[in-house]
C-alpha cells in the first residue's frame, strides 16, 4: 500500500546515546540493543474514522523513537499495517450506507495526509490486510499443520464445509506474560475488545480467531485449504511482523488499549508460528488521550481530529508540539490550553531561531539527545529549547550559527520544523 512522503531528516554533529524505554512486559526501563538494524512494528489504524489526537500521539511517539534510534546510529526498519477489513469497519460502512472499500480508502488517505502534515517518517512497509491475504492464509495453514490451531463447526458459513479457525491458546506457555493479567481479568476485556469468549465449540474461551469462514453479505477471499473467508484481527500483525521484521524484532508499539488482547495474541501467535520466543524484545505503549473527561474513542464519539484542526488553520507543527508536551506514558486530556501553549511556544522558537546568532548551542545538543534517549522525555526536551530561546531573546545572540544548529536538532530529534 502506498504510504506517505517521509520528511527530510537533517544531520547534526555526533551521535545520540543508547535509547532507554519502558517495557510493558517487564514493567521497567530497558536499554534497547538492536544491533545495526532496529525493527519497529507499530499497529496501524482501522480506517473508519479520521485520525484523532489519541492516534496522533501514538504515531508521533513512535516517530520520536525512530528518530532517537537513528540518532544513536541504527538503521530503522519500520512496519505498519492497516486493518482495512474488520468487523468495526464493516459495521460503520453498513451504518453509513457506504461501500466499505470506499470508506477504508477515504480514511486511509486522510490518515496519510495527517501523518505527512505532522512530519511523521513513513514506514518502510505499509500494508493493508486486503493485500496480505496470501501471507496470512499461509501462516494459518502452518498453525493448523503444526497442531497449534483448530477448526470449529460454523453452521452459518456460506460454504457447506466452511469452518472458522482458532489458535489453541491453552498450548502456549507464556500466554499472559505481556499484559500480566489473570484469566479472570482477561475474559471481560477480551469480550469488549473484539473477542468472542462465548463462541460455542472453542477449546478455551480466550482462543483468538485466526480465520473467519465466509458469511452472507460479508467480504471474503480465497483461503486455499481454509476455504473462503477473511482473517481474524490479531493474525495480520503477527504475519506482517514475522515476514517483514523477523523474530525477535526490537519494539512492538501501540496504544495501551492494544496491550490485551491485541499485542498479547499477536505475540503468542508469532511464537506458535515460529517456535521461538520472544515475539518482540520490548513492548511500548502510548497512554490514552482524553477529551471532555473521557478517553478519546470512536465509540464514544468524543474525537478531536487532526484534519479538523488543520482545516481550521492550525499549524501542524503546533499540533505536534502540543503532543510532545506530554510524556507518552502519562494519560492526559486535550484542551484548548494545549493548543494555545503550543502556539505560543512555536512563535517564540521561530523568533529566537530567525536570527544569525543565538545563545551558545553546543551543550544544548547533548542535553536534548540525552532527554529524548531517556524514555522519550519530550517535555524535558521542549523545556531545554524553551530555555535556549529565552536566553537568545533576552540577551541577544552571541554565537553565530547557533539558531541553525538548534533548528536542525529540533527537526532531527523531535520532528518539529520551525
Ligand atoms: Zn497490530
Question: What would you note in describing this structure?
Answer:
- The chain contains 13 helices and 16 strands.
- The mean pLDDT is 95.
- It has helices at 53-71, 87-96, 100-117, 133-145, 183-192, 233-244, 259-274, 306-311, 316-324, 336-352, 362-373, 378-395, 402-414; strands spanning 20-23, 28-31, 37-42, 75-82, 125-128, 149-153, 163-167, 209-213, 229-231, 249-255, 280-286, 289-291, 294-295, 332-334, 357-358, 399-400.
- It starts with 19 loop residues before the first strand and ends with a helix.
- α10 packs across α12 (378-395), α11 (362-373) runs antiparallel to α12 and α11 runs parallel beside α13 (402-414).
- Among the domains are: 20-145 and 174-186 and 235-290, Rossmann fold; 335-414, Anticodon-binding domain of a subclass of class I aminoacyl-tRNA synthetases (Four Helix Bundle (Hemerythrin (Met), subunit A)), CATH 1.20.120.
- α7 (259-274) links the parallel β10 (249-255) and β11.
- The strands form five sheets. A five-stranded parallel sheet has the order 5-4-3-10-11, with helices on both faces. It has a four-stranded antiparallel sheet with strand order 6-7-8-9.
- With 418 residues, it is an alpha/beta fold.
- Bound molecules: zinc ion.
- The site of zinc ion has 5 residues, from α7.
